[in-house]
User: Fold this.
Amino acid sequence: MTVKYFFRTVACLTLVVSTAVSFAQEKNPKDIMDAIVAHRTQRMDEARSAGQRADMAAINAETKAMALKAAKGVDPANVDLDLALSWASVFSFAGMHQEICDLCLRFLESNPSREDKSIAQGMAMRACNSLGDADMLVEMLATYAPATTIESQGHLGSVVRFYADTIAEKMGIEAALKAIDDAMALAKFEDPEEYAKRSFDSFKARGTRNRDGSEMTDKQITAMLVSSAKNRRVGLIYSAANKKSGLLEDAGRKDEALSVLKEFVKDRDPSNASVRRANSAIMQTEMIGSPATALDFDRQYGDFKSLDAWKGKVVIIDFTAHW
Assistant:
């Protein structure tokens, strides 16, 4: 091969690669997302029309394949900042977490609106969590500012269900506890009465009925919506307390774990479902490591006389019931 032929070949290859990258970058991510959403909707509608449950695993696999094909050849470092958030959504469907991080971080440097900033931060944190990058996750959490009440509640849920475990594993329990406390501080809750007023018309339009089939009165609808808002708030707060308690208990800090749950149930309605769960957790936690209580029975089987007779031995108790 002559030197002249070599350089001509290199030049041609460079042109081909450059053209391919340019073509990839010209694809419109918003159109791609519209196509992906339309495909998901169509597949779910088809299943519904056939009276079947949608095969979400298959649908997710199909949309992922669409996103992977669309993302091929797209360099996050070269996309227009105006399209970075849309491309991040495409990469999200493709499961390409590092690319999502890169795109969102670039987008956040462009001084976006508060709403878009919140969306980008949320996507970046989910991607960082999937990558197990606790350092970047904590850094993102420190600057996160939810734009709406719903986003703030969703953020708390994400920290409790996903981020806290990653942070605890990589950075220790104290960092995880702080992340939960910070998310709680950001969480906003709408006044139950205001929520009922805002949601009343749309809920009534559904024609919801009582268990006996009678139509719900306006007063019943309002009471139900107020109760729902209160329960949602208590449930979210409980999820944070329960997660903190679990992390502390796993770390061998039983007294602190109990303290968190006891603080949660303090002055709360004991009939609330979340409060009942917390009280049950308190009882179970206190029982662990404590002396077993005496077992009373009205019928005796085999050689069992009393639990005290087996003191110092491992005892397996099999509870059965019939009615």
Remarks:
- The first helix runs from residue 3 to 26.
